[in-house]
Write a structure and sequence with these properties.
homotrimer; 135 residues; alpha+beta; Jelly Rolls; five-stranded antiparallel β-sheet; 3 helices; elongated
Chain lengths: 135, 135, 135
């Protein structure tokens, strides 16, 4: 089965979507299986990261924005603004698709792991994630 | 089912393979499912990126080649030439495997998304992608 | 089916786990299918890389540690030591999940490909990888 998860427009940065994915997994009702997430955009992406200390999230955002800054003279693809090309680059350095096994009816995440949508635009609008769940 | 897709030798850079993958998905005939691509090489990789404006593609190529230049004095693995080690590094920063849900018998790609083979060598030869499609 | 693979505490760097994964695939007994690996940690990750020349492995480790050094003044998340934040960053630049098709009862890896656990901590402890195998 494939369902769509719609994430409301969010500010630039990491947004924890674990609970929303987990609730789809529980609806699907498989005791054991695989949950695959796919984000249908090229300027936002997915990662699994630490869900405990917010400073890890802040440092990830700051580090990636320093590696891929706005207003780099290399960019020619700039018609949607200074965050256009950095968003595409950040997206390919992280993940468009992620797969998480399902065990005992739940996502088999490590104790400190959360699933994050990484919004790379300043005003990215609503985002759609297609979720495939199978046994 | 697993099928092999052979991509003829291509010059260094991004090559859109969406149509070739889509045609395998249509042959498989699942209304709903998951299509997973796996590239059987360590000096070429896979990404999902913008399929509209060619300037995005050029900037991605230029940015990654600046981050991972040839002739870096750090490299010791150089016996296949100056593009040998940069190819391996570019490969681990992007994706060896990608999964795309199938909906209504087609890849559930976003409207601006294409699937790309990223050839990191100057003369990489034919590339093989194993494709798994299931419901 | 989902099984857990436990990798004993390893020093920082790349560790070839191909044989351990392959043996699970052979136990599963599918002629054709998909094997998905998921590492249940945010300071270690997975990659597919060259399994032949050890110099490629050394250069990958050296390159990534130069890109993401310890003791960067940007980091605020440092309470577990100087390798804490670099581990999270290295993890998001590589892969938390990887999928490899199964053909003829074996992982459909390219001839030079191996599956690696990348330990990013100096003392990371035992690591758990959840493996989903289906046809």
């Amino acid at each position: 089965m494939v369902i769509s998860l719609y994430i409301p427009a969010s500010k630039q940065g990491l947004h924890n979507i674990t609970n929303r994915v987990e609730s789809q997994v529980q609806k699907a009702g498989f005791d054991s299986g695989l949950c695959t997430l796919f984000i249908k955009h090229t300027s936002a992406s997915l990662i699994i990261q630490e869900n405990a200390d917010p400073s890890a999230k802040c440092d990830l955002e700051a580090w990636l924005s320093r590696l891929v800054p706005e207003n780099d003279s290399l960019y020619t693809h700039t018609h949607e603004g200074p965050d256009d090309m950095p968003s595409h680059i950040k997206s390919i350095l992280t993940s468009t698709s992620l797969s998480v096994p399902v065990q005992h009816g739940k996502l088999a995440l490590g104790i400190w792991q959360g699933i994050y949508l990484w919004e790379h635009r300043h005003s990215g609008g609503e985002r759609e994630i297609a979720i495939h769940i199978s046994n």
